[in-house]
Amino acid sequence: MSTATDTQKELAHLARALKAPRLLAAAQRLAPIARELNWSHEEYLAAVLSQEVSSREASGSLIRIKAAGYDCVKSLEYFDYDFQPAAPRDVIAHLSTSAYLQEGRKIVLLGPPGTGKTHLATGLGVKACEQGHRVLSASATTWVNPLTASYRAGNLTKDLAQLRRHPLLIVDEVGYIPFETEAANLFFQLVSSRYEHESLIPTSNLPFFGWGEVFGNHMLAEVISI
Q: What is this structure's pTM?
């Protein structure tokens, strides 16, 4: 009969083989609870595996959030609705489910500086990361630099296709600095490449006039003015 030590060694080996380093700790932590509460073998196994899945999901979320490129990570939970009562709580709560990503919808956040547009855009992006989606975020001027280099190298079509591997792009501060003609054209191509396919969240201090023509269809864009 295997000793307790042999069992622990076997569990450690199996955890390494499964590439689940946190599984052993979960098994050890939950074992006395299972004995005390008379869990069945199936209940104990489900509890251990649930701990491993939760740990993996949390780790994956952190990796996706870091890869998104946020200047500062801000969550929706800390958005101050008292400071900005114009922000529609019910709409933002619905968007936090990331259901709009399935339809490739665009979310346009409009308002003067200091109203929380970047916070909301980042918060929605963080929610998407936590729900398993890849996100990229940068200011409009930062987006233009690689797009310009790609265009001049003849790689724009290929690079725009690669960006479509990310269900959500965030383009912050559109309009704060006027685009030159080439930059404006590249931004239009970025938007067009995601038409009816992937989502985009631009923030801007500009009025909505003309945004419908950019997106091609008003029904594909959710406009939030704050």
A: 0.74
User: Does 52 share its domain with 82?
Assistant: no
Instruction: Specify the number of domains making up the chain.
Output: 2
Give the span between the Cα atoms of 66 and 70, in whole angstroms: 7
Distance CA 73, CA 24 (A): 32
Q: Of 32, 60, 88, which residue constitutes the final position of a domain?
A: 60
Could you tell me which residues come within 8 angstroms of residue 39 by beta carbon, excluding any fewer than 6 positions away? Answer: 33, 47
> Domain containing 35: what range?
4-60
Instruction: Tell whether 54 and 82 lie within a shared domain.
Output: no
The H or E element that residue 7 is part of is helix 4-17
How many C-beta atoms surround the C-beta of residue 57 within 10 A?
Answer: 13
Blockwise average pLDDT, block size 10, the chain, 226 residues: 70 80 83 89 87 78 92 92 90 94 90 91 95 93 91 94 94 80 85 86 77 49 72
Locus of tokens 């001027």: 141
DSSP string, 160-212: HHHHTTSSEEEEEEETSSPPPHHHHHHHHHHHHHTTTTSEEEEEESS-STTHH
